[in-house]
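Tutorial sheet, problem 5. The two components below are modelled jointly, 725 residues in total.
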Amino acid sequence: MRPPAFLQSALERDVRPVKVVTFKIDDKDVTAREDETILTVARQNGIFIPTLCHLEGLSERGACRLCLVEIKNVPRLAPACVTLPRQDMEVITTSERVQDYRKKILELILTERNHVCSVCVSNGHCDLQQLTVDLGLTHVHYDYLYPHHTIDATHERFSIDHNRCVLCLRCVRVCDEIEGAHTWDIMSRGILSKVITDLNQPWGTSETCTGCGKCVHVCPTAALTEKGKSVAEMTKRRQFLPYLQMMRKEERQ
Amino acid sequence: MSETITIKPVTRVEGHGKITITIDNNGNVEDAKFHVTQFRGFEKLCEGRPFYEMPSLVERICGICPISHSIASAKACDAILGVRIPHVAVKLRRLLNCGEFIQSHALSFFHLSAPDLLMGFDSDPARRNIFGLIESHPSIAMDGVKLRKIGQEIILSFAGKRIHPAWVVPGGVNQPLSEQSRQKIVDMIPEAYEIVERTLSWFKSSIEKHREEIRTFSNFPTMFMGLVDEHGNLEHLEGKLRFIDSKGAILNDNIEPFRYHDFIGESVESWSYLKSPYYLPLGYPDGIYRAGPAARLNVCNGCGTPKADQEWAEFISLERGPVMSSFYNHYARLIEILYSIELLENLLNDSDILDKHVRAFAQPNHFEGVGVVEAPRGTLIHHYKVDREGLITWANMIVATGNNNLAMNRGVLQVARRFINGTQITESARNRIEGVIRAFDPCLSCSTHAINGKSGLSIELVTMDGNTLDEV
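Model answer (structure tokens):
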């Protein structure tokens, strides 16, 4: 028989205690548990690192690369959301190189699908739009690809517009990890990647979808929306995520 | 024999267009064409989008009358939902529309046309614009700026944004009116009355000066079309279509908006991106009709508000039958501004105007919807078809300016015949040709779906075999 959760974690700590490391972010001395990511520590210390695919309460994916940071004496940039700190590491979040890369990534995201803020239901409430403001992106230097994407509006209450999808996979994670339905998944590779429901069938015909709407509310853009919302009316409510997790943790204990 | 003359400054029309005038071997004007030279393709690019995005999507057709597009679109969407929208929402849409009529008509009258009217069609073109007007007639220019501001402030107070607001939605509007906004608009009304009454009085006293323009600016018999309410009065948003003939007799009345296709045909010419709608029973191009401010005053039995009714009676007595010269559109615009202010005042004092129930919700219940409104420039028709999921499969729009396409062409021909002599486009001829176009206040960006940032109108004089004689 397994010991209860609180006892188990206490036992584990005794056997393999979590170490504490000290390191630097932007010349600021910070302390962290060794199993906390650079992003978590930065946020705890009020240091801004932009993110898109990251969402508090979901597993990390490292998909969008917007949280890239520079680590002294390491040639490659590292995504802060999936990189753990080491003792005496020196992390730089604001170098010109880092900022330049972030902007380029954002530009590539914008050119890959059809993002038109002015006529978008999420105008003014969009994580992608907010990032362009936060990063001061004024121009896109790459050619727009204008791919042909359709809208799947077969679900009774929700619709997915692939034109607005940034492939952050928050929907896939929330459906799998929180709702436990795993309706969403991803097909194809690279630029042809696309989120799908069940076995790539119309959302309205999905047998696993519970219609809970979690995917809609974690979606950073207007890829997933409630039907019937007019332009600029689609606001996302994500408070449920930390509450759900907190309640479940309490229950387990 | 070809010569190119470039003329600056740009002309005062909204958008981009071109005119060619053909001269026969004896040097007489043979034909004239008004080309709309840019393509935008909104009807096509809407396909595949959810219908509830449409009011905001089609607003982007134009920055001057986005409100008209959004309301016509929302009405088509209401039909797709199959709902009767809350009656306060109808009033609020109507109020918003009043703001738009005030600002759009003020723009056309003061900023675009007043320089011609006050400084004369033959005055120096470098000064014949709103800036010249500020120098020569500062108080009138100020009136124009103020009146337009009032219109824009009204739109802002209702919809939260002056241009391209997302307030009008399928099923109604998305926010009720606040007492604070209501009071703000009420406070602006006295000044608006003063300006429009002052303007009407100087305009009426100066009409005599423009006898030649009145005689030639599309002054020929055509039919007229416009919306009227159940009493036959002037109507901008609800109501049904009415056609009258050139004598003023009613041809068709009470046409439900969704039946527009039984009465309006759409023809396309290879030389223009603007389609030419025509009255279907008479065929193309005999079914020429006009829409817009003067047409609306011609088709209705009155305005239904006391001050505007008085002006309407004076207007309609200008001629025995319908008022034919499109020059009088300027006059009609002022009367419509007055009507809009009166309507605004009435509706804002309604006891239920602050009611919070302003939106009906539904799934798409019908696969087709038509919305018709009167835009400042004429009747505006939006027609959509959707699939079972509510995605647009087909869209058709007849924009206000399009209704007048045939009449504008004939008008240009009429003016060209009167003012063009020989192989040169004289300054005086050019001013009148632009003037007749301006009287219709065409919105080329709407109608043409023009995208080109360079605004203006070019005129070309060509021989029958295609040689360019002159170009300005």
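Marking note: The mean pLDDT of chain B is 89. Full credit if you identified this.
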